[in-house]
Each structure stands twice: as C-alpha cells, then as structure tokens.
Amino acid sequence: MSFRVLHVETGRHLYGGALQVRYLLEGLAARGAANILVCPVDASIADAARPYCEAVFEVPMAGDLDLGFAGRLRRVIRETRPDLVHLHSRRGADVLGGLAARRAGVPAVLSRRVDNPEPAFWARLKYRLFARVVTISEAIRQVLLAEGVPPEKVVCVPSAVDTADYEQSCDRDWFRSTFSLAPEARAVGVIAQLIVRKGHRHLLTAAPAILAACPDTRILLFGQGPLEDELRARIHDMGLDGRVVLAGFRNDLPRILPCLDLVVHPADMEGLGVSLLQAAAAGVPLVGTRAGGLPEIIREDNGVLVPPADPDALAQAVIGLLKDPERARRMGEAGRALVRTRFSIDAMVEGNLGVYRELLVSGAGRS
C-alpha cells in the first residue's frame, strides 16, 4: 500500500521532536511511502530531511497566533495532494494545522509529545480536528483520556533512539580535556533545555549533599534556554563554580554520553524524555522523577525513581549509585537492552505506519 504523507514540524533545531521526525521520514521512505515536509524557513531539519522527501517546503511560521500559517499550509496541501497530514509539533502547528487539513478535506494525525494538562472542554473541542492522536508515552495518553478524548482516537507510539549512535566506547582523554576534569573525577550529566519544568533547581539544591558525599564528582548541565543566567548566578552564589558546570548545547552527545557515570533528570513534568533513551542506549544508569512518561524509561533494573521536587531523595539516589559502581554498571546494561527492544527506530516507524494504514483503509477523518 503506497501513500503520501505531508509532515509538519515547527522546530528549528535537529533534536528532540524534530530528530524523531527525521527518523520517521527515513523509515517511511525505506518502506515505500512518499514524504513531504513543511518546516520553518532555515530550520535544521530541512536539509536533513531532503534525502527522504519528495519535497521540502520552508514556510514562515510565527507561532500559535500566526493565523496566516493555516492558509499557507492549506495551499501546500492543495499543491501536493497528500493522503494524510501528520502534525508533529504543538507550536503553531496543532490547531492551525488541523484546521488547514480539515478545510482541504485531508485526514490529520497529531503527535503529542508533552504531558501538560489542558482544560477538558478545550481538549474535547481541539482533538475533534484530528483523526488520530499519537502520544509518545502512555502517560500522555492517560492525560488525554482523562480530559475526555475518546480512547479509540489516541494511540501510544513511543519515541525512538538510534542505538547504534550511542554504542561506542568512551574516549576518556578527550572527555576530560574537553570538560576540564581531573583524572579521578566522576561525571553526572543532565541533558535538558534550561526551562523551569526540567527541574534543574532541584538538583542544585541537592548538589551540596552529593558533592559532600562524593567530592570527586562534577555535575555537567547540558542544554540551553532562558534560565541560563539564573542558573549560573545560583551556581556562583552557592559556591559551586567549577563543580557544577553549564556545559551548553552539544551536538556530540554520542561521544559524551558513554563517558558519563550517571544521567539525572529531575523534571517536574516530562512527556517521555528522549535524552534518557539516548543515555540508556549508551549504557548509562539513570536517576529521574516519577513524572509523566519517565517511569516508562526508568525501571527498577536500569535506574532509580524519586518523587518530583524532592531534593533530599534525589541526592540519596545519586549518592547511592555513585557509591555502588557495580550496581550502576548492571543498570546501564539493563537500560541498553530496554532501548534496543522497546524504543527502536523500527518500532517507532512501524507504530506510526500502523496508524496511517488504519486511517487510509477505513477512510476515517475525511470530510
């Protein structure tokens, strides 16, 4: 069964959701589907996606209030005549994209990657625009069901990681030199945007206890975002300069992750946590919170879960793994096995493909 899918991705950088879209485009192309991509002007995904697409349309996108985007997208739909539209982003693409697809008479699929609750009345109205909603975790699916979205409309297809990228050995000399680490230092990493819901403040509160118990530890915060100056100031005020480091956004995580002793994700809210999948694929043990979809990645055998916003529990979990390297090693191996079986790119592509096929066979969502 051959078909054409028009994908809409509003992210400008090739990580997170946009990277998942790139994986999906490649997998669909290999299975004979024809892809069309709509993305913002100068978005990184444009060039990365071209080998797997019939066409890439870079169009102006200015967020949720850019009402003209619906018209621009509708024109692309009319020109390319896809069998369905897959909206991969919320920002400026969900409601406006759903309206454009409906006006064009093409069924729309929406990927939902966050677990932020919405008012029930709005959710029931909004999700009528979509023939199916694909959630990246069961936790997000449960949020939508609780808001009254019909269960037959919501399908869970977990995000994926390219395990081959992360199954390399650590170049320890490079790692220590790059991050100015002493030979005996152990490295704890956080890989997340510097935004409130990622919970960096909880780890900073826990940091003095961690560093007192394990003084050879360095905490590296990878990512960028609006809290950078605030976090830097707090690190300085706490006297943690050089021991907690804002390491910035990195595009070489496959080289970095195998060198980390532990990855921590202290989030208050989280749809799934692709950075944790990447860390698990690299064989790194995990510490995270019981928030959103994190318990679907962090199990008893590959990490430790603590309550959200509980710095004391977070500190004890980190200290416990740093002081028991054999337990940490076993957890790392278990995490790698989990990612290979449940979070592979093939599984993600086949999951989305199953949604497409079911819609096209049934004719659901056509107006």
UniProtKB/TrEMBL annotation:
Q: Which residues form a coiled coil?
A: none
Q: What is this protein called?
A: Glycosyl transferase
Keyword Transferase applies: yes
Q: Which InterPro entries match?
A: Glyco_trans_1, Glyco_trans_4-like_N
What's the source species' lineage?
A: Bacteria, Pseudomonadati, Pseudomonadota, Gammaproteobacteria, Chromatiales
Question: Where is each Glycosyl transferase family domain found?
Answer: 185-336
Ranges for domain Glycosyltransferase subfamily 4-like N-terminal: 16-164
Q: Name one GO molecular function term.
A: glycosyltransferase activity
| Organism of provenance | Thioalkalivibrio denitrificans
| Keyword field contains Transferase | yes
Highest taxon of the source?
Bacteria
User: Keywords of this protein's UniProt record, alphabetized?
Assistant: Transferase
